[in-house]
Amino acid sequence: MARTLVLLRHAKAEPEGDLGDAMRPLAGKGRKQAAALGPQLADLVGPVDVALVSSALRATETYKLVAAGMKVRAQQVVAEIYEGGPRTVLGFLQDVDEAAATVLVVGHEPTISGLASLLHDARDDLARQVSLGVPTATACVLQVPGTWQELDRSTAHLSRLIRPSY
Predict the structure, then answer these.
(1) Which structural domains are found in the chain, ordered by start?
(2) Please, which residues have CB within 8 angstroms of residue 121's CB and are 6 or more apart in sequence?
(3) Record keywords: Transport included (predicted)?
């Protein structure tokens, strides 16, 4: 079964305030970005079977706005995505039910680009782009030919970077 992994950096957030980094809400621009991205992702990848979402406010708000524009069967807020690196998120992906065809991760930089780089099986233009990091509201779409449990370094193919069009 062909699998698709979408690694999404949260949309544009407000600067850090008195409540701390984890409680930063989306900025107006970020709300527009996330709302526009949902239908774009739906057209590209279809329904999402599992969404793993960072517990940071800007990530959960991004997820809710993206999910409003596409079908998501199950979602889980995973606190460890907030501070975890690429290998931490990879561990959660390796535990995803093998029946899931499409998985969405909503997280942060540099973890999103780091994980996309780790998983990508080629040294091409997309690899160079993600090696520099990805802007807010950018989705890295990877094709996963094996199982979720087998997902590891160079076992997926980064096929596209998606930015919201609005």
Answers:
(1) 3-162 (3.40.50.1240)
(2) 154, 155, 156, 157
(3) no
